[in-house]
Structures are given as structure tokens and as C-alpha cells.
């Protein structure tokens, strides 16, 4: 969640790898969860000495199942793919031929060829659209729109939030010490406030309910309702018995 902006602003090459190198602080950063590895460190991994970049590559594969599996699992609002198209792409990724895919998905080989054609057309359209957006962005002075967090439960107009809006709402509803003055009733403001609060939690860490409550108590007296909203809006998740919480 903390890595959302970094993820969407990353280059195509970095997204394919699942990580990038930050020249400013000398770290390799996972674009999926935000984990960092300092450059220049040698890691002992399975009785082998490897670089931080190589260790990050193993991290992407072991923790997230590889970049492809993470990206293909994203909601249709991000990929633009139907469930059937995802299944076919997964077979392509496994290097299966049309006959094998036909047996696997119980569809004809002619249907697979049709999927292949449509997906290639979609790829061409995506390239042109990317170029058009880059050219258009170079000639606009509009305030930057903040990308919704990847696990948002429902994307609509509430998530059309500019950087200026975010800064104004944070300044209005939080004290300089980070205490929430009041929980807004308007949905867009609530989303901004919850997003700001969610930045207090580390990705890939399992919090007990006691730890969650302790952090939220420092921010707002009615910590229980904030905790509920963080889960409801897709910022946090928890196991069924509520014994552990984590950044979703």
C-alpha cells in the first residue's frame, strides 16, 4: 500500500522486473510490497553469496510468485482482461502450445488462435495509448491524480483525488503531531484520511489486534471505528479470528 505511487510511476522495464533501483538512497525496492535491500551488501542465500539485486529477484519469486503472477492477479480495472483472457495468458506464460491449451481449458484451437489475435491487438492499442498519454501529459498543467490503492474495494468518483486535495484534507483533519481531529463523513475525504492513517503500518508485517489498537489510539480516540473502516475500504486485512492484521 505504501508503495502504490512508486508502482504506478515505475517504468515498463522496472514493472516487468517487479523492482527498481533508487539512486537517491541506494536501495533496490520491491514495487509490490515496498521491501528494500541496500546496494553493495552481500547476502548469504542457500549457502551462496549473492548481491542485493539478485536477492531482490529471489524475493519477487518467493514472496510474490513472480511478477507475472502478481500482475495477472490484479483486478480487471487494472489489467482490462476478462477471466478467460487471463487463463489463456497464463497458458502462454507456461509456454504451452495450442493443443495443450485446448486440452487444459477445454476450448478449440481456433478459439485459442482468436484469443491470441485479440490479445496482440490489445497490446498494440496499449502501446499507442501509452505514447498518447505521455505526449498529452507533457502539455498539461493539471494537478496530478493520485492512483487508488491496489486493493480498493470499489473504484468510483470518490477516488478521483489530486495531490493538492490530499494535502489540503490532511492538513485540515490532522494536527501537526499526526492526531486526527475528526473523522469526515464525506466519502472522498474519508478515503484520503484513511489512506494517510494506513501509512503508519508496514507492509509484510503481521500485527496483533493489540498492536493495531495501540497505533490507532495515538491517532484517534475511537480507534475501533477507524480499524473497521481501514478493513472495509481495503487498506488492512485480518484473519477470521481477528488475531492478526496486515496491510492488504
TrEMBL record:
Residues 78-135 form the HTH luxR-type domain. GO terms for biological process: regulation of DNA-templated transcription. One of its GO terms (molecular function) is DNA binding. Pfam families: DUF2087, GerE. This is DUF2087 domain-containing protein. The lineage of its organism: Bacteria, Bacillati, Bacillota, Clostridia, Lachnospirales.
Amino acid at each position: 500500500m505504501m508503495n502504490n505511487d512508486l508502482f504506478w510511476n515505475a517504468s515498463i522495464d522496472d514493472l516487468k522486473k517487479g523492482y527498481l533501483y533508487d539512486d537517491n538512497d541506494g536501495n533496490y525496492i520491491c514495487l509490490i510490497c515496498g521491501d528494500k535491500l541496500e546496494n553493495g551488501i552481500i547476502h548469504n542465500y542457500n549457502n551462496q553469496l549473492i548481491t542485493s539485486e539478485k536477492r531482490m529477484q529471489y524475493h519477487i519469486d518467493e514472496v510474490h510468485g513472480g511478477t507475472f503472477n502478481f500482475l495477472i492477479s490484479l483486478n480487471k480495472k487494472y489489467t482490462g482482461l476478462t477471466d478467460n483472457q487471463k487463463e489463456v495468458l497464463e497458458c502462454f506464460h507456461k509456454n504451452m502450445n495450442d493443443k495443450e491449451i485446448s486440452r487444459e481449458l477445454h476450448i478449440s484451437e481456433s478459439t485459442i488462435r482468436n484469443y491470441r489475435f485479440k490479445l496482440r491487438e490489445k497490446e498494440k492499442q496499449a502501446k499507442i495509448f501509452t505514447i498518447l498519454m505521455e505526449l498529452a501529459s507533457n502539455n498539461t498543467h493539471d494537478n496530478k491524480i493520485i492512483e487508488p490503492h491496489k486493493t480498493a474495494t470499489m473504484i468510483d468518483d470518490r477516488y478521483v483525488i489530486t495531490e493538492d486535495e490530499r494535502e489540503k484534507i490532511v492538513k485540515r483533519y490532522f494536527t501537526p503531531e499526526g492526531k486526527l481531529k475528526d473523522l469526515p463523513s464525506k466519502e472522498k475525504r474519508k478515503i484520503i484520511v484513511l489512506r494517510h492513517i494506513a501509512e503508519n503500518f508496514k507492509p509484510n508485517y503481521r500485527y496483533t489486534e493489540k498492536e493495531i489498537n495501540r497505533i490507532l489510539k495515538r491517532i484517534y480516540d475511537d480507534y475501533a471505528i477507524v480499524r473497521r473502516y481501514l478493513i472495509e475500504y481495503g487498506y488492512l486485512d485480518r484473519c477470521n479470528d481477528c488475531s492478526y492484521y496486515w496491510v492488504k
